[in-house]
Fold these 2 entries.
Entry 1:
Amino acid sequence: MSSIFREEIGEQPAVAARLLSEAAGPVAEAAREIRDADPAGLLIAARGSSDHAATYAKYLFEIRNRLPVALAAPSAFGLYGSPPRVERFCVVGISQSGASVDICTVLEQARDQGALTVALTNQPDSRLARAARVVLDLRAGPERSVPASKTYLASLVLLAMLSDALDPDPDFSRALRKVPDSLRQAIDLEGSFDPVVEALDAPRMAVLGRGYHLATAEEVALKITETCYSVAEAQSIADFLHGPVAAVEPGFPVLLLEAAGPALQQMRELSKQLAGLGAQVVRISDDRLDDRMAISVATGLPESLTPLPLAVAGQLLALRLALLRGLDPDRPRGLRKVTITL
Amino acid sequence: MSSIFREEIGEQPAVAARLLSEAAGPVAEAAREIRDADPAGLLIAARGSSDHAATYAKYLFEIRNRLPVALAAPSAFGLYGSPPRVERFCVVGISQSGASVDICTVLEQARDQGALTVALTNQPDSRLARAARVVLDLRAGPERSVPASKTYLASLVLLAMLSDALDPDPDFSRALRKVPDSLRQAIDLEGSFDPVVEALDAPRMAVLGRGYHLATAEEVALKITETCYSVAEAQSIADFLHGPVAAVEPGFPVLLLEAAGPALQQMRELSKQLAGLGAQVVRISDDRLDDRMAISVATGLPESLTPLPLAVAGQLLALRLALLRGLDPDRPRGLRKVTITL
């Protein structure tokens, strides 16, 4: 069964390559403005998949750039009409459509307070873009599938480019240029997904990551919930061990997002602990694993960039799980492409 | 069946009353230090239930005090060893035990950077307290049940007192003094819980709130997951409508946390929409509802304080659901009282 979601997943290497060659100018301008403003931190407003891109930004800018990142509660700005004083922050809005009323409200009020505002959007003529001093265009082309794929990936690429422009590092720049190939590598693995897909054919599951891959866990869990109607709960392994681990019983499926880095040892220990409880543990990993219950996307990228290929593997996993269940991944029940929340 | 969890739930009116009469001094000192430091915002580090108290703090300080609040990613400080520069923030740690290594690390590094540090803990001689310039003692007495109740409530009371000390308002102060009675009122309702408890006897469910009650949704979902082993996913209704709503099918249980305030109309509309999809909608509300599928805790408190009695109702709901299933709420499988994450 052909699907628009699958088609758009396949476009991602080209989307990443296009940004790397065309977006350097606006990214450099954003970096210059941020350096001039010298903000106490970034405040990022986003919903859905874009909010998971914001989670990636939190780890990336805090660890690579040592810049604190807060995720906005849009209702404080809109619904409650009592916005926090954000003039010492750089306020960033991420929205594919640029039309989410609550996200636009955050940027407009921040601009009116005098804060530096930046928009990441696929619609550079949108209301969100008009509220921003600097606009970073996702350049992803129209996204027609309800579950987002290429606009999520494009947000991550732009955020990584911005992080590099703020604190340039030749190794990181070189790795960034390898991202399109790494995405192709993830896509080429699709044929080997069946054992993992079948293991996740369940009404509920946990999707766990830590550090940089908390974002990947959130995004993959959302893809699975949207396209397969499973309740897939995403969490940091640290929070999972503070309570939700109690729900694990024999056969309970757990998907681990696992990449080389300081969190790896903890992930491996958790994996053993969960297997001991009888959980059905499967993995998406950047390691070369000889394990049919793992999808191995061994790209050699630094941990800060593995969220890009691993998210693509997760999108394909959600797609194949939907097809296994005879569901149409392009049109999840109850959802529209643009969700308006006030 | 008697349980320690039930006993500690019952202690909460006394815990709140004790804080209101004994903690005013340290709270005033914390407010003075924060005013002097004039931070760009608060950065709060916490795990588990304490992290839900941090979510409450986000709405409370952003809306009441117009002070931006960021929730810390502890791994940036500890695991990755590359802490963000937080000297322009007031850094707050919340931990019942004061022993969570990752939370202590955040406060220690913030102190070493020169940031103002504040600890909320039930152990005023703990490592967390030693890293803080100002210590707010939860004064909750030993908490023996693994699922937290009175230390969560005590954190909320202290946060509300601190918000009031920063921006005093006689109406808010008066309402705060009514909190112990409102908790008694929630506890006295326990006998009427059966229809709601039976409706939630399912392996998976969603627990939804918005604004101030996102924290309540997170905490009640965790109580249900810990004590009843259901996968209970907590979300803002805004995020829920961006994807997870697709998982709703006939009979799917949804628990709404609903209080008078700007989000109420949206909650009511969502409730109708979910009922239209065949979901089994139950509510914890601060309205006087004539509906056996609602727990009505009509306290007359302002929305900013309803998270306290509604959380207590949610604790009792989790307790009764555990008892219905023949589970021991004091000792969830796989959990210990103090979870050490590095």
Entry 2:
Amino acid sequence: VRAEIVERLRGAMRERGLDALVACSPENVAYLAGLVVPSQPLMRWRHAFCIVPLDGPTAMVVVDMEEHTVRSRVPGPRYYVWREFAGDCTAVVAEALRDLGLADARLGLELDYLPARDHAALRERLPAARLEAAEGLFARQREIKTAGELDLLRRLSRLTDAALHDALAAAGPGSSELELAGALTGGIYRGGAESFKLLIVASGERSQFPNVGPTERRLRVGDLIRLEIFGVLEGYLAGVCRTGIVGAPTAEQERIWRNLVESKHLLLDTLRPGASSDAIYAAYTRKFAELGVGRPISFVGHGIGLHLHEEPYLGGGPDRRLEAGMVLGVEPLLYLPGAFGLQLKDMVAITADGCELLSDYTATDTLFPVGHVARAGQ
Amino acid sequence: VRAEIVERLRGAMRERGLDALVACSPENVAYLAGLVVPSQPLMRWRHAFCIVPLDGPTAMVVVDMEEHTVRSRVPGPRYYVWREFAGDCTAVVAEALRDLGLADARLGLELDYLPARDHAALRERLPAARLEAAEGLFARQREIKTAGELDLLRRLSRLTDAALHDALAAAGPGSSELELAGALTGGIYRGGAESFKLLIVASGERSQFPNVGPTERRLRVGDLIRLEIFGVLEGYLAGVCRTGIVGAPTAEQERIWRNLVESKHLLLDTLRPGASSDAIYAAYTRKFAELGVGRPISFVGHGIGLHLHEEPYLGGGPDRRLEAGMVLGVEPLLYLPGAFGLQLKDMVAITADGCELLSDYTATDTLFPVGHVARAGQ
């Protein structure tokens, strides 16, 4: 279990007066354990828990078939194992909590994840314990990345960006969307990611649709192509999107792209500790309005890490002050129904006095010239 | 909303004395709506609900940003829309239930999915309603596939099998695991799947590890290769695994493969309505014991459809009698720690008087001869 995360969480528990935290979502178990329990996100009844007392040893509760995997990679905590086909995992969680002297403690749980059935069973098994909502506590801690998380997200953002770059650079008229997808996903694995999510390959008239996978459609001169993917490593996500053009863009496409690039620079210029998320979103929508077409997205950025979207949002949510250590996905975009779509999505970390572009591999000042190289700084 | 599914569920509700069902998991919403609400499985707070009263109109509760997508593809139900950043979706669910005259009804919910927080909020907003567990009712109905579901799973199983076949047939000594992954995933999309899950590419010594993605490792003569993928279409899954050999297998590898193939035929010979899941598993473990090495998997098959694993299990779970319309994934396998692994995973439907192999594209009587064609019936 990650000592640095445990210490942070203990600080927050002390403030809240909690005696222990019981993580149960795949994200927060991964946050503590440093690995995704493999089948937990795939089969929701394969519960895993990580218990962090204010004082005393941490503990993991895992299903029998994951015990070997987790034990071999997460040394340190006490292990409590429940058997998949032999009943209810909450019996083992309750046993672990009693064993740790927490049977009558104030326990912080993830009530936005723990199913109602398991919550009721825990309440019955631990009648003297107080079960309180702690999802906000976890979310708040996860907003501010550790140095290790930043290193991982920097590496992951760059390799994801590089894979997009190389796939677009290797394509040309006649390439199919499927060939692009193969090149892209190959690059993601080769770059060192463990897997990926949300592959979007949308060329020509398909570029107007937000979430579409690859087809046999082949690139033609004049096509725009929106290429997006989230690289995944140790449970963390980095989402990057590039838009390419086969041949020369129209004046209108150039004009729109210029607006998206100016929006990106507006964001990079204003993202810093203390900045207001609402003010940044308002500045973005003013820039967007210069286009005179389309509607702005309801948020132009959001926290990202162990989940696709985390707090804070830039737009939509409550007004927030940014802080050093936050990592955001930012994505100026325009979908023109019936015509085409352009999107520019990057990963950005808030630093002590500004921000750092993590997805800095591809030059984005012009639409990506498909079939050519577009390295930043070249 | 699918009329046939609604009718089935109404029959089960009548038996249970429920006034309405409220589906909230991505699987059961897809089961009713016939589409996966795109961001529901990705962001767990983006709740979607499908309400099926015993009498009266069905209703969907969706988040604002999915309204257009869902409305355009699911005509018929009443729509209630909640706004993502403006509060709590349970307020809109409660409003919908009141509007449908169900404020004091017996409601069947998925208490193994609905988070404790949302359950508590619903209870508070609908103090006169009785909220009961109905996850078992949904699971039971989903065990028996409709003709439409069977058609889809047949098509999906075959295209998944064909993509595995073509990727292994196109490979050879020197091919990298990443190249195989690219060929395989390309084939999955080309065959008509929308996406895929759980890609496993495990060659040589890596074939002993259960869940590993592709690397830059290149095939050498004498390598085994375990290639597995789940094709995904409209939320349904079909998982198939083939094991190939580069060049000639050793006598030991041939002997093990023969055992796995005999296990497959044993399963195909015994899977039929009325058969006992425990008896089938016991027969499988007897066959496995002939190998004299390794340990048998704790279940050799499981239901599959909108979730990776569904009831019934062949082994592990309670003894069940099979029924026509069930679809099972069956997977004889052997992992030899420190050496190699072989796996043979197929999709099978229980018919009126036996079973039908859905993944029937690849001949599996011998290890797949990598670089050659292994079409069944050729």
